[in-house]
């Protein structure tokens, strides 16, 4: 009876999160200029379902705006938000650190350096040069962090890994600043990328990012019970049949791969990996069986709605989405820091 009640509660919570995500996606598609009224937009979306034929009344230009600009942007925002949030929850569980986020191991600084090098090259790397350079930079930074951590304390020591990430981030940030000073004519484009954005050229960015997000999220979700076991400590987890070092490595690699992929497409968008998992944890508790899937769905909803705010607050101008998430996330970060200090 008790197990049935818990199962029903879990199902109800997940269903509620799914409804919130659907509502956020719909708002993201409906809100915007170009004369796309909500009723006609909904009819056009329904017309896209196989077997349904409706006349939305939208012009060919408006249809192109909906299907090739607005909808890809909303989907990309959902993928980025979902990945950053679930990666943040995974990092916090792996390192048992409430302040951990997807940029902990130098992903953001490495991606920023890679993107900066691609930008100052003046397009020599081709159309996908900036995303590819950002992806490679993020992955190499994490590889350097893990190599450094292994050489001075072993990958099983979470504190050593975190400190190694700080050192790698400091080095890559210094290198990025040096490059920016040497090529100051590209500063505007560099800062535009660093502040984050979800502008798309059709569905190309979504198709590039989707496989990485799907794979990384699946690996993290499969390990949700392992994270619950690891929460009691490495020694206790080992006694229960879990290999903490191996699990930590797999989870960190999955979270980093997914984060590097979405960052390469969106630029640096901070605080999502802290705000969403902690908000979920305050409501449903620390169990990763609910925390991870809820972070995935609500992270997607959060970033889609944040992007709506970025597009509308100063319309027709557009705020960098990283600025909006920082305005929300910075006070929340201070709240988390205060709670951590009190609990300690």
Automatic annotation (TrEMBL):
It is found in: Cell membrane. The keyword DNA repair does not apply. GO terms for cellular component: plasma membrane. The chain crosses the membrane at residues 12-36, 74-91, 103-122, 128-146, 158-179, 249-278, 290-310, 317-337. It holds the Pfam family FecCD. Keywords: Cell membrane, Membrane, Transmembrane, Transmembrane helix, Transport. It is a multi-pass membrane protein. InterPro entries: ABC_BtuC-like (IPR037294), ABC_transptr_permease_BtuC (IPR000522). One of its GO terms (molecular function) is transmembrane transporter activity. The keyword Disulfide bond does not apply. Belongs to the binding-protein-dependent transport system permease family. FecCD subfamily. PANTHER family: ABC TRANSPORTER PERMEASE PROTEIN MJ0876-RELATED (PTHR30472:SF25), FERRIC ENTEROBACTIN TRANSPORT SYSTEM PERMEASE PROTEIN (PTHR30472). This is Putative ABC transporter permease protein. The lineage of its organism: Bacteria, Bacillati, Actinomycetota, Actinomycetes, Mycobacteriales.
């Amino acid at each position: 009876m008790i197990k049935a009640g818990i199962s029903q509660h879990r199902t109800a919570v997940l269903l509620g999160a799914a409804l919130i995500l659907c509502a956020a996606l719909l708002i993201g598609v409906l809100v915007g200029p170009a004369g796309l009224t909500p009723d006609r937009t909904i009819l056009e979306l329904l017309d896209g379902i196989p077997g349904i034929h409706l006349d939305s009344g939208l012009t060919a230009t408006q249809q192109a705006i909906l299907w090739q600009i607005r909808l890809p942007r909303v989907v990309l925002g959902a993928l980025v938000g979902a990945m950053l949030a679930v990666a943040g929850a995974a990092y916090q569980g792996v390192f048992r650190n409430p302040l951990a986020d997807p940029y902990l191991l130098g992903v953001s600084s490495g991606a920023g350096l890679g993107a900066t090098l691609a930008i100052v090259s003046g397009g020599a790397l081709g159309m996908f040069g900036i995303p590819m350079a950002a992806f490679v930079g993020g992955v190499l930074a994490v590889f350097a962090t893990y190599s450094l951590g292994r050489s001075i304390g072993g990958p099983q020591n979470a504190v050593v890994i975190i400190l190694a990430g700080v050192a790698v981030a400091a080095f890559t940030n210094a290198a990025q600043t040096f490059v920016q000073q040497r090529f100051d004519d590209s500063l505007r484009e560099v800062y535009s990328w660093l502040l984050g954005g979800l502008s798309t050229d059709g569905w190309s960015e979504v198709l590039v990012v989707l496989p990485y997000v799907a794979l990384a999220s699946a690996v993290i979700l499969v390990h949700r019970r392992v994270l619950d076991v690891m929460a009691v400590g490495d020694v206790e987890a080992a006694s229960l049949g879990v290999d903490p070092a191996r699990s930590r490595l797999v989870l960190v690699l999955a979270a980093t791969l997914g984060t590097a992929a979405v960052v390469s497409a969106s630029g640096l968008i901070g605080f999502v990996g802290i705000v969403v998992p902690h908000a979920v944890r305050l409501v449903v508790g620390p169990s990763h069986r609910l925390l991870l899937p809820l972070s995935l769905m609500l992270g997607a909803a959060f970033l889609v709605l944040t992007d709506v705010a970025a597009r509308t607050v100063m319309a027709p101008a557009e705020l960098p989405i990283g600025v909006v998430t920082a305005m929300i996330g910075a006070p929340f970060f201070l709240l988390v820091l205060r709670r951590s200090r009190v609990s300690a």
